[in-house]
Amino acid sequence: MTVMNSEPARSPTPRFPEELVASTAFLLKKLGMSTKEQAMEAYGSTGLNPYHHAILVLLDEGSRETQGAIADALGFDRGQLVGLLDELEEQGLVERRRDPSDRRRHLVRLTPEGRRALGRLRTLSRRLEDDLLVPLDERERDQFHTLLLRLAEHHLPHCARVAAGKQL
């Protein structure tokens, strides 16, 4: 008697062509896309997203408080920022008020609830980064970050400004 397996045979995951796997730019792009997808899904359970997280981090530094300065510092479109701030304000995480010295501007500040939410988002962000870097030991993680930062300083103006004031 012959036993038939009713489950279809699973084929192995297809592999990218060797030429693409040999390309650092291709690997960075694919890892970036995968990391963004995972982050959006993980942040979704908080009711926030990585863009909200970036705003809260910036406000926690305390150095930028106008909507325009926040948008410029993060490289966000100013119209996009207004919508993100609306969402944060609805959740009680930020507060906006007119600038008394210039009524055309809004000043934005982090609320106590925003600080608590930021703590939770930082924990989530560390977990996501640890998941991404799990195959690397601490020395390799530091080396990888140093190399990525060098590339970012060269190609991304927002990273160059941040790094310019720090000794790396």
What does this structure look like?
This protein is mainly alpha-helical. Helices cover 62% and strands 9% of the residues. The chain is built from eight helices and two strands. It has helices at 18-21, 24-44, 50-61, 67-74, 78-90, 112-132, 138-155, 157-164; strands at 94-99, 102-110. Strands 1-2 form a two-stranded antiparallel ribbon. Strand 1 and strand 2 form a beta hairpin. Helix 2 crosses helix 6.
Secondary-structure map:
Elements: H1 18-21, H2 24-44, H3 50-61, H4 67-74, H5 78-90, E1 94-99, E2 102-110, H6 112-132, H7 138-155, H8 157-164
Antiparallel strand pairs: 1-2
Helix pairs in contact: 2-6, 3-6, 7-8
Quick recap:
By secondary structure, the chain is mainly alpha-helical. It has 8 helices and 2 strands, in the order αααααββααα.
User: Beta-sheet strand percentage?
Assistant: 5-15%
**Spatial strand arrangement across the major sheet:** 1-2
Helix content: 55-70%
Low-confidence stretches: none
Mean pLDDT: 89
Secondary-structure element series: HHHHHEEHHH
| Number of helical segments with 4 or more residues | 8
Number of strands: 2
Q: What gyration radius follows from the Cα positions, in whole Å?
A: 21 Å
The shape is globular
Oligomeric state of the chains in view: single chain
Main β sheet profile = 2 strands, antiparallel
Distance between the termini: 71 Å
Please identify the structural class as seen in this structure.
mainly alpha
Throw out a few tags for this protein.
single chain; 168 residues; mainly alpha; two-stranded antiparallel ribbon; 8 helices
